[in-house]
Structure formats: C-alpha cells, structure tokens
Amino acid sequence: MPCQSSDELKALVEEARNCTKNGKVADYIPALGKAREDDLSIAIHYPDGRCLSAGDIEKKITLQSISKVISLALVLMDRGQDDVFKHVGMEPTGDPFNSIVKLETMAPTKPLNPLINAGALVVTHMINGDTVKERIQRLLVFVQELTKDATIRYCEEVARSEFETSYLNRALCYFLKQHKMIAENTDIEQLMELYTMQCAIEMNCLNLARIGLVFAMDGIDPQSGKQIIPADIARICKTFMVTCGMYNASGEFAIKIGIPAKSGVSGGIMGAVPGKFGIGIFGPALDEKGNSIAGIKLLELLSKNYKLSMF
Ligand code: DON
User: Fold this and answer.
1) What is the topology classification, in CATH, of domain 6-61+203-306?
2) What is the pTM of this model?
3) pLDDT tens-digit profile of 187-203?
4) Which of 62, 123, 212, 247 is deepest in the core (most CB within 10 A)?
5) What dotted CATH number matches 65-199?
6) Ligand 1 pocket test target in 25, 29, 65 with most atoms within 8 Å of CB
C-alpha cells in the first residue's frame, strides 16, 4: 500500500501548495475565474474501498477536459473503435489544447486525438441520443455509475459561462463540419450546448478518484465486481491519458511522474495508477500549459516517494 495515512498526504499537500503562487486560475471561461488560487486537495481511492484525503475534499469542481476521457469511453462503447477512429486520430499534437493549426496543415482534416478540444468536440457529437437533454442525461448516468453517486449533475452557471464565450470551440466545430468530421446535419449551437454541459459536470475529489480507480482496475468497479467499461476501452483511454492527457506537457509528465492522468482547466487532475488506485486532485492555479501547477507537483512527490511510475 503506497500511502498509508491521510497525515502523510496532508504533509505532501502542504509542500506542493507552495507552488500555487506561481500559477494562475483560468479565467477565459469567466465563471472559473472565481476559484481560489491557493486551493489544493487530493483524494486517493483504493480497490478495497478505503480512501485517503487531504485538503477541502468536499469542494466541487467542474471536470472540463477530464470529461473528454469519460465521453470517449462512452462513445467507444456506443459506436465501436472503427467508427470513432474514422473521425479522430491516436497521436499527440505537441500543440496547446485549443489549437486549430494542425486541422489546416494535416491531410485529411482529422483531429489528431480525442483529448484536444477539436477531437473532443468530434467525440461529443457522436454521443447517442435524439436531443441535447437525452444525450447529456446518458453521459450523466454513466458518470453516476462510475462515481457511484446519483447526485452528480452539471453546473449550469459554468456551462452557460462557457457557452456564451466559446468562440474558438465554435470555430473548431465549423471547420470540422466543413471537412465532414462533424456530420453535416449537426446543429453546432446544440453541440456547443452539449459540450459545455459535459465540461461543467461537477464533482468532488473523492468522486474523481473513484472514476480514476475504475480506469486503474481495467474498467471494473472493484466493489461490485461489475465491468462498467470493457477492459479494451479502459486500456485505450489510459493510453491516451499517458500520451495526450496533460496536453503538450504529456511527455515531461510521463518521464517525471509516469501515471496515466487527465487534467482540466478547472484545476482538476484524475489519475489512474494501474491495478492500484485512483487519484482525484483539485488545485485551480494553472501553469502556462493549462495544467494544475500544484497538482503536478503533488503527483511528482507521490510518484517519487512511493515509486508509482509505470515505466
Ligand atoms: O473547451 C474548453 O476550452 C474547456 N471546456 C476545457 C479545456 C480544458 O480543460 C483544457 N485543459 N487543460
């Protein structure tokens, strides 16, 4: 068992918290700008049901880009790998998460992976259902099953705030629609509604750690024994987390930390230590690439102290 007590975890949180002063809360989605820069919390969820935590773990955060791994798992389950990978690639980009540049320079115009915004918009447009309401509901039910928490919802304020300001994502959608990676009959405003609701799904660190745990255990909920995500799909998601989960910082993260992880601009990080445990972190001060600055420091300390690198 790597980390034995919440006190051990608290000491690591206090050490990592020093970094928050070097980061900045995301404010390009206006509602996210309200977060406290020096916040930092973590939860670790073990397969036997034990949880360790430190910081204000009751505080809720929106998933933002962390939701991209979850929608990917759902769409792979709905549509199968062949259909999904016709529309989105498997390669890291080396570009910022919201970049449009490769869509124009690569032929065919296909987003390089599902964890950049362009790829995630394509994946979200493939969520089954007739209406936005039905489709967000399907995603929420899936998240509720992963977290074992039926109270999970999306934050309307954050969803609206992003919907009203998301010009770059709209540009990506129209570009992708022009090039047939987003189906011609797709209403982009409705897609933006669904995408911004998806990104605004709200939960605490314990919930996040529990999702990480299901991925860590190859898609099995270790408490009920139920295979929530087919093992093959959990493996694909974890592989993307390693190669693209921390955007254009994924290579350095793999070398220094070596844990499949996915970040979001709210300051969340979900980690899945294969076969061992799930991690949920919230630290809203971000580095220049949009990853939680103290969250990364904390994972670095955990990985070094407890030899968690999978490589
Ligand atoms: O689409 C966006 O810009 C946000 N809803 C999510 C971006 C994000 O979390 C990138 N993370 N590092």
Assistant:
1) Beta-lactamase (3.40.710)
2) 0.97
3) 999 999 999 999 999 99
4) 212
5) 1.10.1500.10
6) 65
